[in-house]
Amino acid sequence: MPVASDAFLVHVAPGRAPARVAPPTPRVETPKNEPSTFLRVATVLFPWIIFMIVTACFLFLSHVVPVVVWAVALLYLGVGLVFIAVDRQSKTQYIGIGILTVLATVMGVLIGSMLFQQYLRPFWMYLDSAEYNNVIPGDPAAAHADAGRVVFSRDAIVQTLKSVGYRDGSTYCVAPIMDKYMTGRVQFWAVGQDCCAAREDMWCDDIRVPGARSGVVVFDTEGIFGAMTISAADQYRKSIRMAEAQFDLSSAPDAMLVRWVGDPQQVQQQYWKEGVGAWLIASAVYLVFSIAAGVAVLYQPGDLKILRGGK
């Protein structure tokens, strides 16, 4: 065969080195399962935004439109379940964001409800309740059953020398509110937590502030878990029974529990401020958790195979 007709031979001019042919550049393919930038951001931030919305709804709107609040929670729960269902059908990488959305909704309901019970429910109850002025300590407490704020007569005092503290985790302190003319049952009790000795000394709220003679009612609320929990009012009643035995007192069965303060309005606003502050702190903490959980879901996808039927 002639040399010129051989296709596998390279013709080189005399005196020149043979030319080097560069090998072909290998093609780098992007993994098909690599999450997009949008999915990365959504997996981290979307559940956190849902948590903020759900907790805010329960905290600020439960008293006004409870049906709407629960509708919002069920809506976001449904969105999370849809993400999970779509991923199981078509492997769209939405299972992570679906799980975190469901978790954020459930945590939002729980934490939002607890914050509402602790802060905003008392705020709304004080706002909706009546205020009574110049109340004599010997007056029947039942006559002021709708009270949220009480301003006592000038001769009303808290008998701290007849105070008792009942300890059950916290110390629940009580002392009778009386005047020099009282001879019957105690109708009003000043109360507080962790602000008294076991006997005969109490410094809760503004008890030691001269001129303070107002009371904000301690409402008997069961909390988020209802009858399964013991309310603060129940603990105060245990202290009252101890005070009755210790100091030969007799308490009215419907005696009113109040915090002895100088400015009831300030106490009411404090509940609002503390509620907002607690919501912001909870949101910041959940943002950190959401980032950590989102990263774990995005970069450990193998752990989610069991939720896809093991495939």
Shape: elongated
Largest sheet, in brief, is:
8 strands, mixed
Mean pLDDT: 84
Give the ordered list of helices and strands.
HHHEEEEEEEHEH
DSSP summary, beta strand count: 8
Query: Could you name the ranges where pLDDT drops below 50 across 5 or more consecutive residues?
Result: none
User: Radius of gyration, Cα only, in angstroms?
Assistant: 34 Å
Look at the helices and sheets and give the structural class.
alpha+beta
Helical residues, percent: 40-55%
Query: What is the assembly state of the chains in this entry?
Result: single chain
Beta-strand portion reads 15-25%
Number of helices: 5
Query: Separation of termini?
Result: 59 Å
How does the SSE layout of this entry go?
Layout: H1 37-61, H2 66-90, H3 95-128, E1 130-135, E2 147-152, E3 157-158, E4 164-168, E5 170-178, E6 186-193, E7 214-217, H4 232-247, E8 251-261, H5 264-299
Parallel strand pairs: 1-2, 6-8
Antiparallel strand pairs: 2-7, 3-5, 4-5, 5-6, 7-8
